[in-house]
Design brief:
Layout: E1 23-25, E2 28-30, E3 36-38, E4 45-51, E5 54-61, E6 65-74, H1 82-96, E7 103-107, E8 112-120, H2 126-149
Antiparallel strand pairs: 1-2, 2-3, 4-5, 5-6, 6-8, 7-8
Helix pairs in contact: 1-2
């Protein structure tokens, strides 16, 4: 048996790539270049994921502005346990004065603390969304631990 030589590959014309989306990823259409665009949404695109028994909410708005938020803890009422409440509120004050850029601590009338963070993405790709979500988790992790050690309880 003799091996025959294959002719070198020489395309006769350039291959045109389709302008159609590659597919869908949740509320996004995925372009051939990996870019994400809202799929039929007229406003911000919202998505969520679970972490540490909590729901992390995300919103991608105009100008690639990405916001994350999490119901972090519940601060005990004075009637429940005054000493834990004082310690937890001191931890909230430390969080608010920590100097973390773009991190906000919002206390609701129901005494639930919500942590919110935002950044502007350079480009909207799945990789950049996952990287931003990871940065958010790494940022809030020590605060959740501190707040729980100081008497705050996870939200129900």
């Amino acid at each position: 048996m003799t091996a025959s030589a294959c002719p070198p590959f020489a395309p006769s014309s350039p291959v045109a790539l389709s302008s159609r989306p590659l597919g869908r990823l949740g509320p996004f259409e995925v372009g051939l270049d990996g870019s994400l665009s809202p799929s039929g949404a007229s406003g911000p695109v919202r998505f969520a994921f679970a972490w540490r028994g909590r729901r992390v909410q995300a919103e991608l708005g105009p100008g690639r502005q990405l916001r994350f938020g999490i119901r972090a803890v519940r601060i005990p009422f004075t009637a429940e346990e005054a000493s834990r409440r004082r310690s937890a509120l001191k931890a909230v004050l430390a969080l608010r004065t920590s100097g973390e850029v773009n991190l906000a601590a919002v206390l609701s009338p129901a005494h639930e603390l919500r942590l919110e963070w935002q950044e502007t993405l350079e480009a909207t790709t799945a990789t950049r969304l996952v990287a931003a979500a990871t940065r958010f988790i790494l940022l809030v992790q020590p605060y959740l631990t501190l707040l729980e050690e100081e008497g705050a309880v996870p939200p129900v």
